[in-house]
């Protein structure tokens, strides 16, 4: 089975903060899929959004050396499994599937998750959650899930409200299947507090929320904590946290 890959590397999870389901600071092998249907204006992986332009994928030869080798796309599931095994440093918490949007390639994603689980690793899914029908197909294989709630200011799609409702539905499906799941909201200085209240109402009693400032950070601490307070007021004080893209401050992948 073939898939359009972007890169595979070994690092530590830089996002998620301390809410249940987060793997922040845990060592992971990241499997980045090429291709995405959304266009978040602040996306830090823009070079991988158009899968037809990702002609080859790269994989680390040795963790934290900055050395890569390249293979042409499409990749085979077995090629990716081989690289995962080569990058296994023996201290891997889970395999992170990110992108791009991994659920767009649901069949190879499912095959890969199944193989990796059989090899003894846990699966950590990083997704925009816009396709609940795809999420259904893999939910039983997912151990951890980080599901974005796309804020209006991401300008990810024309149907922003519909997207948010589908993301929440994906969270529901993952939770029902037993995956440790949290929601991640990337906020900007333009984010409206009434939208944060709406997301919090949807997530209340369902999953914890981390609020992650868009990088580069331009939002004030006061505004960030206003979002925090409003979300915690609705969802409960133990169900909200902050998340920062810490890996970017250490210049690691
Ligand atoms: C590149 S996305 C890939 C997974 C999936 N497409 C998604 O959006 O959740 C991985 C994570 O990086 C976050 N991210 C991307 N660019 C960012 C930025 N400039 N600032 C903060 N978070 C960002 C996304 O919100 C998402 O949680
Ligand atoms: N270290 C590290 N942590 C991450 N957490 C989410 C990432 C992503 O791009 O999905 C990411 C990434 O690219 N690197
Ligand atoms: S959904 Fe994820 S990969 Fe797609 S544009 Fe948004 S942040 Fe980037
Ligand atoms: Mg990233």
UniProtKB/TrEMBL annotation:
Its cofactor is Mg(2+); S-adenosyl-L-methionine; [4Fe-4S] cluster. GO terms for molecular function: 4 iron, 4 sulfur cluster binding; carbon-nitrogen lyase activity; magnesium ion binding; S-adenosyl-L-methionine binding. Its EC number is 4.3.99.3. Pathway: Purine metabolism; 7-cyano-7-deazaguanine biosynthesis. Binds 1 S-adenosyl-L-methionine per subunit. InterPro entries: 7-CO-7-deazaguanine_synth-like (IPR024924), Aldolase_TIM (IPR013785), Organic_radical-activating (IPR034457), rSAM (IPR007197), rSAM_sf (IPR058240). [4Fe-4S] cluster binds at residues 36, 40, 43. Mg(2+) binds at residue 45. HAMAP family: QueE. Belongs to the radical SAM superfamily. 7-carboxy-7-deazaguanine synthase family. Catalyzes the complex heterocyclic radical-mediated conversion of 6-carboxy-5,6,7,8-tetrahydropterin (CPH4) to 7-carboxy-7-deazaguanine (CDG), a step common to the biosynthetic pathways of all 7-deazapurine-containing compounds. This is 7-carboxy-7-deazaguanine synthase. It comes from Thermococcus siculi.
